[in-house]
Amino acid sequence: MNFIYSFQSEWLKTRRSLAAWLVLIGGFFIPAIILVGRVVYHDKSGPEMQSPVMWENVAGQCWQFMSLFLLPMGVILATSLITQIEYKNNAWKQVHVTPQRLTIIFLSKLAVILVMLLQFFLLFNIGIYLAGIAPAFFYENIDYPGQAFPFDYFLKTSGRFLLDCLPIVALQYLISLHFKNFLVPLGIGIGLMVAALIAVEWQYGYFVPYTYCPYNFFEMRGAAMKASQAVNIHWWAFGYFAIFTVASYLIYILKKEKG
């Protein structure tokens, strides 16, 4: 029960925060652009509505822009913002005098980040669906998609990208708990993201934990890179997540001055 109360408390802190707006706007941003394009250029999107792989094509367009830059960047920003709420409000001492174990505080903050990430994926998939049916909704002469909505495909694709995001969440959580200055985790995260984009073509690029979202997208489009063919990137992502989370927990527990 203590965890539930702590989670509720942490969740309330995110209401109307910049992180909450990032989730809402970020989830619909790319699908909204694709939706406008499909409605405006309905002469091209109309015939595509009856394609047997229409939903896969729309999802591929959305994930192309999301996976390479916006998703990792959004995770970096949201994780850093949520973790550093206490630093911003100078409230760490107030948190630590409450009758909560340090483990509960650590896990509840991490759980809020993961739930918000799930919320983002849900909104993003809703946005893809709306972008897919948009031409038929706005124009009577265009039929609704002939292909049934592939729930399994969307669930599997989102699950893989979610798993590939976890190392970014864990490492940004570790850095954000350790440094008071918001620019430090943000700068490190952006630096690692740029390094990941450079390392994508390296045969050992899977050692860089921020490369997994781009690798997953290339696999999704049938253009897998050498590094992602050499190993199971999803297991690597989970492994990094576990290592970073344990390291973050130990640093937080053993740190003498907590906030």
Give a quick rundown of the structure.
This protein is an all-alpha fold and 259 residues long. The chain is built from twelve helices and no strands.
- Rough shape? globular
Q: How much helicity do the residues have? A: over 70%
- Regions with little confidence, pLDDT below 50 for 5+ residues: none
**Number of beta-strand segments:** 0
Overall pLDDT confidence: 87
Main beta sheet: none
| Backbone structural class | mainly alpha
How are the elements arranged and paired?
Blueprint: H1 2-13, H2 18-40, H3 42-48, H4 54-83, H5 85-89, H6 92-96, H7 102-138, H8 151-178, H9 183-199, H10 212-220, H11 226-230, H12 233-254
Helix pairs in contact: 1-7, 2-3, 2-4, 2-7, 4-7, 4-8, 4-9, 4-10, 7-8, 8-9, 8-10, 8-12
Provide structural commentary:
- The protein is mainly α and 259 residues long.
- It has one domain (2-254).
- It is built from twelve helices and no strands.
- It has helices at residues 2-13, 18-40, 42-48, 54-83, 85-89, 92-96, 102-138, 151-178, 183-199, 212-220, 226-230, 233-254.
- The mean pLDDT is 87.
